[in-house]
Amino acid sequence: MIVVDPSVWIDWFNGAETRETALLDGILGVEPVIVGDLILTEVLQGSCSERDYRRARRALDTLIFEPMVGCDIALAGARTFRTLRARSVAVRKTVDMLIATFCMENGYELLHADRDFDTIAAASELRTL
Question: Where are the beta strands (DSSP E) in 11-118?
């Protein structure tokens, strides 16, 4: 199963042609794609118009929804953040740490266009595309 970070969804909805949006095009309808509460929030809050919001919402509603943050993921995220910090690895955004932890805890791969995930993956068990 694959989780697609908002960094890729935003580019995809905006029609950007990147390596990551090409990968997303290739997996939609072929591989199971997970969308979670954090991803829904980040993608939809950036919609500039009601029309864009409805379009994004319809597309995301076709995917597998899983809640991402509960007590177990919150605790595991804090533990992973502290472990990485002890290794002098800086993670700038808590949401990124929670998305990465959700993927690691569930054995999911992450498709992203955010350098924080490269940093996390280099120092943890996060699997990325």
Answer: 33-36, 64-66, 109-111
Q: 5 — phi, psi (to 5°)?
A: -70, 150
Element (H, E) at 52: helix 50-61
Percent of the chain past pLDDT 70, that is, above it, reads: 100
Residue 64 bridge partners (DSSP): 34
Tell me the three state secondary structure of residue 16.
Answer: coil
> Scanning the structure block, which residue is given the tokens 């409805």?
54
Q: What is the domain count for the chain?
A: 1
* Predicted local distance difference test score (pLDDT) of residue 40: 95
Give residue 54's domain range: 2-128
